[in-house]
């Protein structure tokens, strides 16, 4: 899956959790979207469900920007199809 495809899926999931619809690869979940720990936990659960992966707690805080999630999922969720 291409980065643009992951971005679209991530935008959809972020919108479902937060109501925020426009993201860029540089969007920071905490700084730009002001997500709290519950929002982050809900978003991680949504990523896990959609991409059929388990994200260990030690990896969660490495995923601070949309770009980080795209790169992580490209490594962990292959082969994933929309």
TrEMBL record:
GO biological process, any: lipid A biosynthetic process
Q: Which domain of life is it from?
A: Bacteria
What does the UniProt keyword field contain? Answer: Fatty acid biosynthesis, Fatty acid metabolism, Lipid biosynthesis, Lipid metabolism, Phosphopantetheine, Phosphoprotein
- Pfam family, any one: PP-binding
Q: Which InterPro entries match?
A: ACP, ACP-like_sf, PP-bd_ACP
A GO cellular component term found in this entry reads: membrane
Q: Which GO terms describe its molecular function?
A: acyl binding; acyl carrier activity
Residues covered by the Carrier domain: 1-77
What is the protein name given in its UniProt record? Acyl carrier protein
Originating species: Blautia pseudococcoides
